[in-house]
Amino acid sequence: MNKYSICIVGGASRYTPDMLTMLCNQKDRFPLRKIVLYDNEEERQNLMGKYTEVLFKDYYPEVEEIVYTTDAKEAFSDIDFALMQIRAGRLEMRESDEKIAMKHGCLGQETCGPGGFAYGMRSVPAVVDIIKEIRKYSPDSWILNYSNPAAIVAEATKRIFKDDHKIINICDMPIAIMDMYANVLGKTRKDFEPRYFGLNHFGWFTNIYDAKTGHDYLPELREILKEPVEFKTEALFEEPSWKSTFNFMSQMIRDYDEYLPNTYLQYYLYPNKMYKKSDPDYTRANEVMDGNEKITYEHLEKVVELGRIKGSEYDVDPDAGCHAEYIVDLATALANNTKEIFLIITENKGSIENLDRNMMVEIPCRVGVHGVEPLTVGEVPTFYKGMIENQYAYEKLTVDAYMEGSYQKAMKALVLNRAVINTDVARALLDDYIVANKGYWPELK
Ligand code: G6P
Ligand code: MN
């Protein structure tokens, strides 16, 4: 079997430790010869790198080379896969995005509403620069990108790297939702073959087929999920705000009688409610900084200090299920031509017949050595078509604003965002974001 060289871009991220455990756990079907962590934050990166050395010494000694570096050439030479999970401006800028939105009466969320817009304008240049560097040193590598806000980032990479079919944009939210369905029905995610349409963080499941029999579980799931249910999930989604998000799915299912919604639709379908639920002085960014982020790095420090992990009080469970596994599923599909179905953010090209061919939609695709091949979705009903077209126009204008440095387009983008709407609010938001994002955003004229 081939052994792969992978680079985690944004290696110092709080998501990396789970990713590493998952890679240990998946070594039989996706063996590594080399792992590289690349980040621009040297200190955190060193800690993560040292942690990786300890973890792999105990759980993955077969890996020949462990590299952690802030140098692009060293990081991106000789890699088969780049897994990209960067956060331009880190959580401090997420806090700024969310709080500025709240100050102007709009919901504060990292990928939805005005926060997603501000983040998009930072994320796109950072992602684009890194992809250019990767292409310099490993022109044939697969780039699996799940940097947020994925919808906007995907629209930009489609335009800037036109014929590069080896850049794949994917999000884990549908995966986490399917894990929930599986748990509720006593199955596993891999028992399902989903059908889904929409944009990233803005889509609906239309069928949850049994992968073997073809039975559609969606009707029974709809009935069960009309009321919040208990289900087993991983630590992140056990946090109170995620619990509340998953519970809110029930409200959406009661209000809309067809499909099963992505959790993020709560922000667009009930923006006032979501605004009122949030604390303008303590947003999700604060929760993450004080909670998950802190715990993660403290844990790393302890492991590095101890110099071993297996059997210690800080041990990981390499056999535990982890939804990040889908990344290895995807990489394996690309490498071994499994032709499994994934929900991918890709150019529509006629899959959804009554939507723009160039739209970056999130739809089921077969994945194999030739990359991503979208399935036919057909026509979507008027309500969803209207919602999607409005949201996509916002995403497109955001990328236009970035590429042209246009204040007008940025303002129009915000007016189209369902969480903003008013022109005066859009202007006020934009003016505050421009000040806060100095050095990250292109200049808008
Ligand atoms: C889900 C989404 C991601 C998001 C992540 C964490 O997995 O798909 O796009 O970044 O949740 O969100 P949080 O608010 O917990 O940082
Ligand atoms: Mn996502």
From TrEMBL:
Cofactor (UniProt): NAD(+)
The keyword Repressor is assigned to this record: no
Family listed: Belongs to the glycosyl hydrolase 4 family.
Cofactor note: Binds 1 NAD(+) per subunit.
Protein name: Alpha-galactosidase/6-phospho-beta-glucosidase family protein
Domain Glycosyl hydrolase family 4 C-terminal: start-end pairs: 196-420
Keyword Manganese in annotation: yes
Superkingdom of origin: Bacteria
Alphabetical keyword list: Glycosidase, Hydrolase, Manganese, Metal-binding, NAD
